[in-house]
Amino acid sequence: MRNKQFYQFAIPAIGAMLVTGLYFVVDGIFVGRGIGTDALAAINVSVPFICILTSVSMMITMGGATITAIHFGRGENEQANHCFQLSLLMVILFGLFMTVMSALFSKNIAKLLGASDILLEPTADYIKYFVIFGIFFCGANTLSAFVRNDNNPQLALWGMLVGALSNIFLDWLFIFPMKMGIIGAAIASGLGQVLACLLLCTHFIRKKAKLHIRVPQISFSMIRQIIKTGVPEFVTQMSQPITILCYNFLVLRMFGEIGVAAFSVVSYLLVVIIGIFIGLAQGMQPLLSRSFGSGKSDDERYFFHKGLRLGLILAIVIYILLWIFGKQLIAIFNPDPDLVQIGYHCLKIYGLCLAFTALNVVHTIYFLSTRRTKEAICLSTLRSFVANTIFVFLIPVLFGDDAIWVGIIFAEGFVCCIALLLRHRNKQIV
Question: Contact 33/265 with Cβ under 8 angstroms?
Fold first, then answer.
């Protein structure tokens, strides 16, 4: 029964994140082939800012979803609804704030992100038109998480699927027939999320739904709880963009714009790959939180260990596929021989950290879902702001520029060791 329940939540959640990642990949393919390598590089430069949008919204979402699921586990449906409604309002207000910021200051933001003179204009355009749809990007992720926590993981998957498929069609339409360039790519992504939100909203008018969309009563104590519980998710979500930002500075210095374009392709693939691990974690979250809320420690332990095993298996399979098909995958984006060579060399080395990444993501979501906030913040902070920043810059200094891609392996491995230490301090989950 527990095994079946695990896969009922894990598979749709992995599927939803895989689909979300794939539409970013398709976006990259259309941009690389329809606009060029400079546009690819511009999108990669803009990723850290866009990830602030998703990271803050996911902090609120996962904090609220965790508290909501714990209330469900205790049979407290009214409190669960209040937490959901307050979380949704916070996400909408933050999305609106980011939209205004990107509309007014897109060029300043592009300069802060390190865009060169060649990349400044396309980076600013992408940021401006992408984040115009900020409320819908935030809203789609938030609605998906709460729909999953309200026992409808299949609709959560379908919402992401509709958003992805519509984005693929609109990418083709805006970039090729309509020749809208990088602005078209940004608008296509946004319109896909509008459709995803509309589909996900249908859940809340169903008779079986326990959660309902209403204007909530403001509770500052609940807001603090949501943010405090969700902080580890924010830090986890920022891990990839901070790593990309660090590498962008190094790669631009060592390889120029073609190197940034090559790493942009790798980043697209990493969004899909790490999205699979995050999907696994998000699928585990309702099960872990409800088990914790209802005091079922055996179930809690079972779902945690099941997640660790599946994460490791997925990491190994993915790395083998990257080793075999890496060049072909990169060439789909852009066949430039230098770009393919740089990108494939990066993938082979960078991919060695995936097993550590899977273990780190699963440990973090376990601590977050069961309100072990200190442990979750420790892991996510090390992984996002400390270890990767130190090792990405330190390893090339110690071992030369040829070791540029090795730093992330040291970073994820170090964090994994800390995760195992924290785990063994907590006797309940060993």
Answer: no
